[in-house]
Amino acid sequence: MFCRQESIKNYLRPFFPFFLLLLSADYLYSANYALQLNGTSQYASSATPTNSILNITGSNSTGLTIEMWIYRTNIDTGGQGLVVRTNGTTYTQGYGVYIYNNIARLEIYNGASPPSYAIDSSINVSSGIWHHIAFVAAPTTGYIFIDGVNRSGTVYGSPTMPASVTSGQTLYIGNDPSNEYYGGYIDEVRISSTVKYNATYPPAPPALILPDICTVGCWRFDEGSGSTAADSSGFGVNLVLTNSPTWLYRSELVTIQPDATAGIDTYLNNENTTVMDYNYGVATENNTSRDHHPTLIKFDLSSIPSNATIQSAVMSFYTNDVGDEIWELYAWRIASGNSNWVEGTGNGSVVSGASCWNYRQYNTVNWAGSAGCNTAGTDYLTPEMGKESLIYGNVSGWMNIPLSTSQVQTWLTANYGAKVNFTYASGGGYWMGYFLSDTATASQRPKLTIGYTVPSVSPPNAVTNLSALNRWYGDPVHLTWTYPGPTTLPSGEKFAIQYSSWTGVTWSTGSANLFITTGTLTAGTSLWYRITGLTTSTTYYFRIWTSSGSASVWSAISNGATSYVYVGPPYGG
Question: What is the pTM of this model?
Answer without folding.
Answer: 0.68
